[in-house]
Amino acid sequence: MIHDGKDRYGRYLEEFQVGDVYRHWPGKTITESDNNLFCLLTMNHNPLHLDEHYMQSHQHGRILVAGPLVLSVAVGMSVIDTSGRAIANLEYERVTHDGPVFAGDTIYAESEVLEVRESASRPDRGLVYIETRVHNQRYERVLTYRRRFLAPKRPA
């Protein structure tokens, strides 16, 4: 039998169980270039993320990685284990920035399944609700979020 990468990408609705935890690997080391490019692409010109001299007098003493970059990387890290087969992402909620991320930090994430239910209107799919927790290399929590997505049922 021949298997391609699609076989390992995401899950069908029946494969999710409440309480399951997926540890996403590998981690991602966030570089200064990652942060600069993200800020340029998103037009986020806040000196917290770009101005080293300004940040020397700030409580953290150095540039902070933009929070939406950390969120975006964490979502991307989770896709292969969770929503890779998704029909649609429906909602992001309860995003909390729990700690700072600096250039050179490596982030890791894990997602816990909170709810799984079949669609009331479409029998070929269902709703999956997960919480993703993001940690740095010292296992300090830096970000938490929840999201819902539509997952297809396994084809007959």
Describe the structure in brief.
The protein is an alpha+beta fold and 156 residues long. 21% of the residues lie in helices and 35% in strands.
Could you describe the 3D structure shown?
- Helices cover 21% and strands 35% of the residues.
- It has a five-stranded antiparallel β-sheet.
- A hairpin with a 6-residue loop joins strand 3 (106-118) and strand 4 (125-135).
- By secondary structure, the protein is of the alpha+beta class.
- It starts with 20 loop residues before the first strand and ends with a strand.
- It is built from four helices and five strands, in the order βααααββββ.
Helix content: 10-25%
Shape: elongated
The count of β-strands is 5
How far apart the termini lie comes to 19 Å
Number of discrete helical segments: 4
Side by side, the strands of the main sheet go 1-3-4-5-2
Please state the CA-atom Rg, rounded to the nearest Å: 18 Å
How is the biggest beta sheet arranged? 5 strands, antiparallel
Helix and strand element order = EHHHHEEEE
Roughly what is the average pLDDT, rounded to an integer?
A: 95
Give the SSE map.
Elements: E1 21-29, H1 32-42, H2 47-50, H3 52-55, H4 67-79, E2 88-97, E3 106-118, E4 125-135, E5 141-152
Antiparallel strand pairs: 1-3, 2-5, 3-4, 4-5
